[in-house]
């Protein structure tokens, strides 16, 4: 590697031009500072290139196929269904490129002197070296630095010998046709979203889970309903371990072991690793920053200011491994860039009520405090209200009457704390409840809000009424009654 170093002095260096890094750059510039955005990979962001957008495009195609498959339940018979895999993938890629194009336009709008290509690495608390493919070309001296390096899919060690058929979510959207079969490793959000979409598009899919978790759900009752609902039309093998993978023609021969110790060998065209993502903080010389790190090598930081310790270094987005979803990356990037610009006068920024939505069907939404957090040692007992969507009016009308919502509130104050659900239109109910949570509403105040009829939101009202009853059980003897038909 040749060394042809140029020295650059800036106020704020931002490592990574993803969603968090772009927001950080803009916020630092808005503070009147000279900022430099350093990107080691392709521009375009994980969200647009290989994340949120292409996955939702694939899911949209799967929903179209599923609507046709579900139509006979209404007495509507669409005839022979033909899925053109090449056309499906072509649309995914065409629309994905359009979304990436918008990001590239905005990156093109950034002055050239504020951008640097290459992989950045700390050599000291205020110094970065930036390496291209063949050389270390630049030394950057920055009085403040934002780490916005994102995350990378975890490679499952038992799959290392599986050959080119072992892929990650980043590879799926490059396929030019739908495969015949796919094994998916992991029942997290990525495994379930992509696994279900592929299955609905006619791919033979088996999903392997080493445990019993389903996406981000922590409430055992919701988890039970979710395993049943998703398992009804998907081959999910819970409590299965991956033993080995070897190439088999153009595919992969996968060996797995179930809870009884029984080993099974199956062939798949592809094995998709969806076993989690790891923050990109290794290989960036984090040890030269002098920051205190946690067990995963991530600097300790304040989640309201994004400041690492009391230092001039800030962290944002998937790199901090806290809430690894797009809206949080954007918020954290803005806060980190703003505070890097203000440093040492750092200020807390707005952190919103947590909200995570998995675009499976039924959809999964969790918001506010999770069941697991509320059960943590030392926390006061909390009240729970439950609704099943099995007999919920509008859900039955739509033939989408599967799922459960559990809502949580504080005894005494009656304040709404959070919820977990799997069910129809969870993306919308999730927002409604997250807004109430952030507004610090009580359950009574939420029940004073309008609910139309017949809507899926009436299911949320039923759960809130049950929660209200639980909160007031010993006090007034109030018994909630659902008085609209099919509520
Ligand atoms: C398949 C999939 C589906 C998803 N779906 C959703 C969804 O529906 N909704 C949602 O909210 N979230 C979703 N997410 C999560 C969301 O995409 C991420 O949380 C978000 O994109 C993270 O943004 P970021 O800025 O932290 O990272 P990124 O956008 O990955 O940016 C990090 C950048 O840093 C660069 N970089 C890394 N190291 C260096 C270095 N040393 N020097 C220079 N540059 C470096 C990388 O090349 C990269 O461009 C999904 C993710 C995946 C993978
Ligand atoms: N709709 C969305 O908002 C959305 C969609 C996709 C991804 N994302 C983000 O991307 C992140 C990463 O997603 P993910 O699904 O890869 O991770 P995850 O952490 O959500 O799930 C990983 C899963 O893999 C399992 N696993 C881990 N190692 C395994 C092994 N060796 N064998 C079998 N199973 C194993 C885990 O038990 C877990 O079920 C998410 O946490 C989320 O923040 C969000």
From TrEMBL:
**Disulfide bridge positions per record:** 47-52
Q: Which InterPro entries match?
A: FAD/NAD-bd_sf, FAD/NAD-binding_dom, FAD/NAD-linked_Rdtase_dimer_sf, Mn/Fe_SOD_N_sf, Pyr_nuc-diS_OxRdtase, Pyr_nucl-diS_OxRdtase_dimer
Q: List ligand-binding residues for FAD.
A: 56, 149-151, 318
Textual note on the cofactor: Binds 1 FAD per subunit.
SUPFAM superfamilies from the xrefs? FAD/NAD(P)-binding domain, FAD/NAD-linked reductases, dimerisation (C-terminal) domain
The membrane-spanning stretches of this chain are none
Catalytic residue positions: 453 (proton acceptor)
Q: Which residues bind NAD(+)?
A: 186-193, 276
What keywords does the record list, in alphabetical order? FAD, Flavoprotein, NAD, Nucleotide-binding
The protein's matches in Pfam families, at most eight in alphabetical order, are given as: Pyr_redox_2 (PF07992), Pyr_redox_dim (PF02852)
Q: Which Gene3D superfamilies match?
A: 3.30.390.30, FAD/NAD(P)-binding domain, Fe,Mn superoxide dismutase (SOD) domain
- Keyword Membrane attached: no
Which family does the record assign?
Belongs to the class-I pyridine nucleotide-disulfide oxidoreductase family.
Instruction: Return the NCBIfam families for the record.
Output: PRK06292.1-1
The identity of this protein, by name, is Dihydrolipoyl dehydrogenase
Q: Which organism is it from?
A: Massilia psychrophila
